[in-house]
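re: ur question from earlier - yeah i can do the single chain one, its not a big deal. heres the input i used so u can compare w yours
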Amino acid sequence: MITKDELEKILWSIALPGFAQILNKKFFKGLLLIGLEILINVQSNFNDVIILSFHGEIERAIGQTNYQWLMFYPCLYFFAIWDAYSDANGKKVSLAFLPFVFSAYLVTVGLIYSATFKVYGMLLGPIWLPMLSLPLGILIGIFLRYMLLKFIYRAKES
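and the output i got, formated as C-alpha cells:
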C-alpha cells in the first residue's frame, strides 16, 4: 500500500520530471531530469505545440514540432515517473517497469505517426495521438507483466 507521502512524490513526478527525485533528496538526479526536460521542451517547441493543439490548429502544431527533440520526451517523462514509483515503493516489485516502458514506447510511436495518421480523415497531431496511445501502452505493459509473472511463477513451481 502506498502512503500519502509516497503518493505525493509520484504526483510531483507527473508534474515535472525531477521534482519527485528532489523530494527524495536525490538532488543531482532531480536537477538533471529538470534540466533535460527544459532542454527538450525548448528545443522541440513543446509548449507552443501544446497551445496550438489545444486550439485545434493541428497543421500549425505539426509545423512547429521539432520531432528530433520531442521524441526524447516520452522516455524521459516515463523514466522519471518509474523512478519516483520505484523510490516511493521502497521494495522492488518484479517487472514493475513494463507498463512504464510500453507507455513510453507507444507514446513515441504515436508521436512518430502523428504528422500523417488520420482518424476519420482528421489529423490528431503531435499531442493528441501520443496521448491517445498512452492507455494502450499501459494496458499492454500490465498484461505482459501479468503473463510473465504467471509464467515465471509456474516455472518456479515445477
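The longest strand covers residues 118-119. not sure if urs matches, ping me
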